Amino acid sequence: YKVRYWEKRKRCWTFLVEPDQMLADKNKVNKEEEDYAHELIEMVQRSRERFAKSFIGKTVEIVVEDEKTGRGWTGEYLPCEPLSGSFVRKSIARVFVTKTRDDLLLGNLR
């Protein structure tokens, strides 16, 4: 994840957080840094979940990547999976979002 953290004085720090690689060598990472990295990862995930929930009740267009499930990506880089229908890979589908699971949009084809 690439995380931007805003300080009160409007300074922006950018961190590249890769949990698997960063925490691989525990001898080099102290407990405070490890806790901070986990806090940033959780903050990004909560933010993505809130953003995804803002699409409930709206219609989005996705590019279908999986013919079996219809799973694809919106223009806002959110994963989306229609609950039913037939799909063609690399086609555009319109989905009415009815619920979310984490940052995954779920809905019905329009």
What does the model show?
The longest helix is centred in the middle third of the chain and has 23 residues, at 31-53. A hairpin with a 2-residue loop joins strand 6 (92-101) and strand 7 (104-109). This protein is elongated. It has helices at residues 19-22, 31-53, and strands at 2-6, 12-16, 59-64, 72-74, 79-82, 92-101, 104-109. Residues 1-10 have low confidence and may be disordered. The protein has two helices and seven strands; from the N terminus they run ββααβββββ. It is α+β, with helices and mostly antiparallel strands. The strands form two sheets. Strands 3-4-5-7-6 form a five-stranded mixed beta barrel. Strands 1-2 form a two-stranded antiparallel sheet.
Amino-to-carboxy terminus distance: 32 Å
Report Rg.
Answer: 18 Å
Content-based structural category: alpha+beta
Overall geometry comes to elongated
Low-confidence stretches: 1-10
The total strand number stands at 7
Give a quick rundown of the structure.
With 110 residues, the protein is of the alpha+beta class. The protein contains two helices and seven strands. The strands form two sheets. A five-stranded mixed beta barrel has the order 3-4-5-7-6. A two-stranded antiparallel ribbon has the order 1-2.
Write the layout of secondary structure elements.
Blueprint (H helix, E strand, L loop, with lengths): L1 E5 L5 E5 L2 H4 L8 H23 L5 E6 L7 E3 L4 E4 L9 E10 L2 E6 L1
Parallel strand pairs: 5-7
Antiparallel strand pairs: 1-2, 3-4, 3-6, 4-5, 6-7
